[in-house]
Amino acid sequence: METNEKRKIAWSVLDLATVLEGKTAADSFANSLALAKHAESLDYTRFWLAEHHNMIGVASSATSILIGHIAGGTQTIRVGSGGIMLPNHAPLVVAEQFGTLASLYPGRIDLGLGRAPGTDQLTARALRGENFHAQHNFPADIQKLQRFFSAENSTASVRAIPGEGLDIPIWILGSSTDSALLAAAMGLPYAFASHFAPTYFMQAIELYRKNFQPSQWLQQPYVISCVNVVAADTDAEAERLTTSIKQFFMGVVTGKRSRLLPPVDSMEGIWDMQEEAAVMQMLAYSFVGGPQKLQAKIESFLQQTGVNEIMATAHIYDQTARLHSYTLFAQLMQQINA
Fold this sequence. Notes:
Pfam families: Bac_luciferase. This is Luciferase-like monooxygenase. Residues 23-308 form the Luciferase-like domain. There is one protein chain. This protein has an eight-stranded parallel beta barrel with strand order 1-2-3-4-5-6-7-9, surrounded by eight helices. The chain has helices at residues 25-41, 63-72, 91-104, 121-128, 138-149, 177-186, 201-211, 235-254, 273-282, 291-305, 319-337, and strands at residues 10-15, 46-49, 78-85, 109-114, 170-174, 190-192, 223-231, 286-289, 309-313. It is globular. The longest helix has 20 residues, at 235-254. The protein is of the alpha/beta class.
C-alpha cells in the first residue's frame, strides 16, 4: 500500500441538515447552504446529503430536492447523495430526479446509493406502501439505474428523460462486507459509513480492494471513509463541542431522539456506563481536537487505511464553530497533501 505522502487525499463533507434545538428545518437548510459555500471556498471535493426519515433532528428526508438547493447556491463543488436509500424508490424515479439535477448542474452531481431504509420499519412501510412487501434486489436496481442512464436505452420502451445518456457517477454506500463485495464486483467506487458503523470498516475495504473488478466506470478501487471530525483551536474546546454529537448518538442508542442539543461541560449524569460504551463504539472513527492532535491522528488513519478520500461530518451546534471546524480540517488536509 502506498503511504499517504505519495497520494493526494481528497476531503469532502457529509451533511444531514441537522435540526438544532430551538431552531427549524428552514434554519437547517440555510446553515447547510452556508456550509456548502464555505466548503467550496476551502477546496472540498464534494458535499453529500444523507436520506433519513422520521428523525426529529434530521431534515434531509427529501434528499434530491435539498441537493438541488445546495447545487443551485454553489458553483463548483460536487453535490450528491450519501446516500439515496434505493429500496425506498423506484429506479426510474431516481434516474429522472438525478437526470434533472445533472442537467441543471452538469458535471457536479454524484449519486450515492444505499440498501438500508434510512429509518425504522414502520416508517419504511409508510414510505413504500404496498411495495414494502415486494422483493427488493439492490444489485438489480443499480443495474436498472445504469441502464436508464445509458445512451443505449434510447430504444427501450421505458426511458429516463432527463437522465438518459448523462454521466452521473454512481457510488455504493455501505457499512458491511456485503456492500464492499457488491461495489467490487460492479467496479464502482465505495463509500463506507465509518462515522457510525465502524465494526466492519477495515475488513470491508480490504475485501473491496482484493475483489475489485475494473469497469467502464472505474479502473482502480476508490474508497471514501466518512468520519466524525470536530476541530477547534484547543483540544478542550473540541471535546466540549463533541458533547453535542455524543448526546445525538445517545438518542440513537436509547431511541429517545431529539434535535441537536447545545454542548455541555461534562456528560456525567447525562448517560450511564452502558450508554457511554455503546455511543463510543459507534464513534470509534472520530477525530476530535486542536490542529496538532488532529494531524497526528489523521495521518495515522490514512497510513493504516489507505483511503482515497475522507468525508467529514460534524454535528456541531454552533454554526460559527462548525464552519471553523471545517476550516481547520481543510487546512490540515492541505498540509498533509503538501
